[in-house]
Amino acid sequence: MKNKISHLLILIFSIFVHLTTLAQNKMVSGSITDSNGIPIPGANIVVKGSQINTISDFDGKYSINANTGNVLIFSSTGSKTIEKTVEQSSIIDITLSDEVAELKEVVVVGYGTMKKSDLTGSIAQIKGDVLNTVTSSNPLEAVQGRAAGVAVLNNDSSPGSSPKIRIRGNGSVSAGNDPLIVVDGFPLVNSNLNDISSNDIESMEILKDASSAAIYGSRGANGVILITTKRGKKGQNNLEIVGTQGISTPTRLPKTLSRDSFVNFINDAYTYSTGKPVYSATNPAPNINTDWQDEIIQNMALMQNYSLSFSGGKDNTTYLLSGNIFSQDGIVEASGFKKLTLRTNLNHEYKPWLTVGTHLQVGRSQRDIRNNPTGDIFRYGWPTIPVKNPDGSWYYATEDPAVSSYFEGTWNPVSEAFEMTNEISTDRILGDVYAHFKLAKNLTFKTNYGVDISNEKQYEYYTSKSTAGIGSGNTGTGGQYYRRQSSQLTDNILSYANTWKDKHSLTATAVYSWQEYVYEDLGVKGSGFQNDATGANDITYADRASITNSSNKYSSKLISWTARTSYAYNEKYLITLTGRYDGSSRFGSNNKWGFFPSVGLGWNVDKENFLKDSNVISALKLRASYGVTGNQEIGNYQSLSKLVKANYVYDNNPIFGFVETIGNPDLKWERNIQYNAGVDLSLWKRFDLNLDFYQRQTSDLLYNVPIPTTSGYSSMLQNIGEVKNIGFEVTARVKVIDSNFKWDISGNFSKNKNEIVSLYGDVSRINVGSSSAGIAKYLIVGQPVNSVWARESAGIIKTQEQLTAYQQIRPTAQLGEEMYVDKNNDKIINNDDYVNIGTTSPDFFYGISTNLSYKNLTLDIYGQGATGLASDEDSNYMIFGENQIQNRNYIPTQYAYDRMWSPTNPSGNFPRAGAKDVYLSDRTNGDWNYFVVKNIKLAYNLSSVIKSVDWVKQLNVYVNAQNFINIANHRGYNPESGNVTSPYVKTMLIGFTAKF
């Protein structure tokens, strides 16, 4: 009986508890608006301490299940986060006040994070969603035009190629000018980012001045790029799928000559230059009309990008698991790039005083390479020769007696697509494990160990029917090459952060770091393969005498002690002090260690009483910094005397031996001193402006200096000279319209002046090199490092008066040829008359973007351009053909042919067909400008349309148009560089982003 009563009481109590719970649990709803009463769509609402969350719809409305007493967290980008306790009412309306986004955002700095308002250095931040507007194999391509002072140079348009980055100009003459790239705290020695998915990146910070980059010491001279990957967040479990697919088509293809136009051109050219036409009545041109450009370049190529990620967390653990598949077919046959990456970021609070975690990425990529598939079209691409012989075999002009004398080598780029394989496969592991200890209040210690291991295999084979096979006696030729790069790192970071009396804020960081890098390779190649079926997979099938082997190995180590202290008084007055002490194995025994200090000062003027209530100035900060950084990128063992293999003959017998190179125990890193002054201004909470002025001086330049031959050597690597960069950068953003219809515009502008201040001794000029085509490179005091020197054109000789005058300088000149300025008036045109026609870095470069949105529709447009470029390329055969460079009689484009001087076109602005003594000059290679609309993205947010589907948090669809508009004052394939070795493409993509 007692048991029955107890069971009944338990049942009654359970029902009571259940009813009470039901009474407490309810649907909370409301609306979220900004300070102007405008609804905020996409705001996050989370029940604190749980996984229950939702987002507001387009009208700012939301609903969520919660219990009385729960705390709701309301947040939105650019707004202050608010927490609200659920009480009796089931309706909670929220107003999120605006923050000054530019100065309140948190940015990543070396070994930590800071609020932008507390920064004293010059740092550009690019968020992951901005990087993802451009679909490409390398995340750095999306940086182009996005950050002032950061030049991204895309000379190669082929799939899988990597852009070149320059931050605030070139500081070195012979050492590296590439910035240091750091991923999740790991400084990369192998800086190829093709193995990283843009979809995994949370943000990218670019440290531009010495105050911010000095914490990386001997590797910070060229700037630092910090990449932070995404992490899970507590209470926000998400499944995200991103899919993009598109088609690339060639653009900027010039019209080539038809058969008849070519025959007229080639006959005129050779008749003028040699007195004899190529084709005549007794030797008529074949009835063939081959468009080699069309034969090589496909009409379209496919691009695909798919990502899947799981992220979230609860209690003590956050996680992110992601995978990415990217594939890009080349617009040229047998070229392309594809990769697979897998990433996990885990963080677990094991104890209140101990947190452990890992960042880990594994990836595999494959790149199929076609070297220079289109570069010789304007050199050898005669329309009168076929792709194949009548019997179906490949045609090679050198085997055709009718035209072989006009060709310098075996050429058929179409055959190469089918008779050649050049494939590079890379497996890479990049990751770390870490432990974070809370030692005491405000005091933490973090230790981590990471590795970056890349294994690369290259397989290359040319069949017996390829151009290389023809050259090796109709047999195959090829080889295999293996490369391994490994880097391991340990960081030990002690951090202190404290705020007292609500006015004083102090953070201090101390770091001990050790990193080792090892490179090794092994290769074997041969020719004379009799069987193409086995290729170069079995090297024993090659002719034994042709087999050559190669191998190499080197390593370097870097040990560092680092300290940084930041202090802020009342959020007004800021100071940051940094010092790094580096020891590098790369430098001489007398200079193994170097110290790199910096100081940064800041004043948040808007916090002063005379401005804090201003309705006009939302934020105003003045910044100034000074710092010293170094450049250790000189290669390995340069300070040491080395043994180099040198065979010699003694008594008619070959002897294997060595010679010793000269070392330099005083060798040290290049030293970079930089001053920076900046202003950060925000007006009416609608207009943001950032201004930076800098001077960057690099001394102790590394250069091989000639030494007396009595020493037994010709030169020695020494620290000499000085280079200076002076520039300014402007970044501006404005909210033009901020209502239901929104319109934002942003842009940046950069100008850098580079100058060589001194070289060595009393030397003021060094000849770096010159080509017979008319381009020269010199290092001259007072001139930029990357200057291009050439003749100064005086125009085409169009009149008899011009001809008579110019024949005083070149007696053999004729009408339709080019005149050059005799700068020294010695009646001779040679290298002494060369002028600086510009630099390979632009006079200034800029980027501009605009965003328009109305309800669920968004339009993003962004473009990038530069002016004042000069090209130092001396083998651009499109330019050769258009201008008849060096008496080569190469093929012009239709554009140039129509404008060539001739007796029937006496006003032509291009040299005549077969013109003699024409060279590259300021007319052909100087003052290049371009502008490219990099991306046009039209997106539609379907979240509000499908809001009844509660398991779908977000659904966006979009259309992207990349590189569809491009303008340049030259006709090269690539508008940015004029390069013609690979076609430039525009891409149309469709895609979606879904979050569940």
Descriptive overview:
With 996 residues, the protein is mainly beta. Strand 44 and strand 45 form a beta hairpin.
> Can you count the helices?
13
Mean pLDDT: 89
Oligomerization: single chain
Strand content: over 45%
C-alpha end-to-end distance: 53 Å
Largest sheet: 22 strands, antiparallel, barrel
**What structural class results from the helix and strand content?**
mainly beta
Low-confidence stretches: 4-23
Q: Please bin the fraction of helical residues.
A: under 10%
- Please provide the count of β strands: 48
Using the alpha-carbon principal axes, give the shape: globular
Rg, nearest Å: 33 Å
How is the secondary structure organized here?
Blueprint: H1 2-24, E1 25-34, E2 44-47, E3 53-55, E4 61-67, E5 71-75, E6 82-85, E7 94-96, H2 101-104, E8 106-109, E9 112-115, E10 123-127, H3 128-131, E11 150-153, E12 164-167, E13 180-183, E14 186-188, E15 201-207, H4 210-213, E16 224-229, E17 238-251, H5 259-274, H6 292-296, E18 301-314, E19 317-329, E20 336-351, E21 354-368, H7 377-380, H8 413-419, E22 420-440, E23 443-462, H9 467-471, E24 476-500, E25 504-529, E26 548-569, E27 573-584, E28 593-604, E29 617-631, E30 643-645, E31 648-650, E32 653-655, E33 658-660, E34 670-683, E35 687-706, E36 715-738, E37 741-758, E38 765-770, E39 776-780, E40 787-790, E41 793-796, H10 800-806, E42 818-820, E43 835-839, E44 844-854, E45 857-869, H11 877-883, H12 894-898, H13 922-925, E46 928-941, E47 954-968, E48 984-995
Parallel strand pairs: 1-7, 13-16
Antiparallel strand pairs: 1-4, 2-3, 2-5, 5-6, 8-9, 10-15, 11-12, 13-14, 15-16, 17-18, 17-48, 18-19, 19-20, 20-21, 21-22, 22-23, 23-24, 24-25, 25-26, 26-27, 27-28, 28-29, 29-34, 30-33, 31-32, 34-35, 35-36, 36-37, 37-44, 38-39, 40-43, 41-42, 44-45, 45-46, 46-47, 47-48
